[in-house]
Structure formats: structure tokens, C-alpha cells
């Protein structure tokens, strides 16, 4: 019997097991994790999986924790656990040494900056001069993920009584599939889009949006505003922060963001900026 190698079985897991239940974006993350793993530890590609120990894997993660963020390490851990579980179920290995691997606490956490109120105004002013600027304004008024906005179709827009809504489908998570009420401003942005496609937002060539189109759009915003950290996810963070600054109900915010857990929403997203904190601090002087 041929020795089971990580290179073979990670790709079996990715293309057979993971592909059957993961969304495309998640699959991309796992593929990236596999590539990073083998760049760091090339000798594992052809090594017999039965010869790789739990201590060896944990030592590798401890070392990679000095280089990669916790989220990247978690993707690697999911890949290894899943790969060994699949191999064990098919009697290719005798145990799963990746079953209790810990991610080192010193590994960095990815931090995505959002926008202060002042910075958001700069972005909105720059967006107003861009032919695709409405995309940015809609991001800022809805908190949508990039993939969710790209997938929006006219059939997803409808009225429930007097409330204008959009239906978010095929989102990153089950909680992401949701009905999102629109503000009057968001509704106006949506309705001024040309109906040239089944998709609500299109490129300047009136074709469906792509990641490349959105990347070039935020790169133009970086150049015009000087805010070099701006990205698609920046707008989502800014939406959450503005909502918290306006005393949103946290459970409602979690639902609007498409999260299953309120704690995740609060830990991951809203970070009030100094100007807002200063306003809040000054409330004490008004007593």
C-alpha cells in the first residue's frame, strides 16, 4: 500500500470533502492555507502522514505563529484536522495527530481599520466623483460584505409594507442569508442604478462586478483620500462603528451584519474613534 502523504490527502480533502460543504471564498482560504503550510514546511509534502507526530505539528504552529496571523493558522488547523480525519476514516492513517493543536496566543490578530467620521466624509466626497462611487456609498449604508453586494439582483429588492428591503442570499454564513431593511438614502442609491443587468450594481462596462473592479475602486479611493488602508471591508467596519456610535441595539446590529453571535460582532467590529470618545467624555461636563 502506498504511503499516505500530506500533499495528496490535503488536496483530496479540499476537493472532495470541503468542496461539498464550503462556499467558494472559504475554499480559497483553505487552498491558501495549504500553500502557505507547504512553503513553511516543504518536507511535509512527501512525508508519510503516520510519521508526523502531534508534537511536531504543535512545534510547527508555534514557529508559524511568529509569522502568520491567528486566522491564517486556524485555516491551517482546519485543513490538517479535516485531512487526518478523512484519512483515518479511510484507514489510510492510524491516528489524528492534529486533533488538539493549539494556536499560539502571541500570533497576531488581523486588524482592519475602519473610518472615523471625518475620514468617512473624505471617502464619501471622493466616491461622489467616481463613476462607481454609489457602490461605496451603498457599502457604507448597509454594511454588506463584498460578495453579498456583488451578488445582489433586482429580484432581491422588494417592499414589505412601507419598508424597502433587500434579500441577501448565498452569504458567507447561514446567518448571513437575511432580509435587510434599507434606509431612504440606501434605497435612493439602489434605485438610481441603471437596469442593464439582472445584477443591481455593475461595472462601468455594465457587466457584473468582479473582485478586480472592486479592488481598483478602493485603490482609487486610497489615492484620492490619502487613506492607504481603505478596502472593501473597511466600509463594513465603518458601518458597524457608526451604528454603535448612534446607540444601536447590539442584537439588531448582529442580525444586520449577518452574524450568529452578538459577542463576535462587538469584539470584531465597532471601535469608537477618538473624536467620538471625546464627545462622550465631554458629556460629564454638561451635568
Please report the total strand number as a whole number: 3
Helical segment count: 13
**N- to C-terminal distance:** 80 Å
Largest sheet: 3 strands, antiparallel
Kindly report the CATH topology of the largest domain: hpI Integrase, Chain A
- CATH class (first level) name of the largest domain: Mainly Alpha
Helix/strand/pairing class, anyone?
A: mainly alpha
What percent of residues adopt helix (DSSP H or I)? 40-55%
Q: What's the rounded overall pLDDT mean?
A: 89
Name given to the CATH architecture of the largest domain: Orthogonal Bundle
Apparent shape: elongated
CATH H level, superfamily name of the largest domain: Intergrase catalytic core
Radius of gyration: 23 Å
Unreliable spans: none
Strand content: under 5%
Strand order of the largest sheet: 1-2-3
Following the backbone from N to C, one meets helices and strands in this order, namely HHHHHHHEEEHHHHHH
Number of domains: 2
What layout of secondary structure does this protein have?
Blueprint: H1 6-17, H2 24-40, H3 54-64, H4 70-89, H5 117-128, H6 133-142, H7 146-151, E1 157-160, E2 163-168, E3 178-181, H8 184-191, H9 211-225, H10 232-245, H11 250-257, H12 262-268, H13 274-281
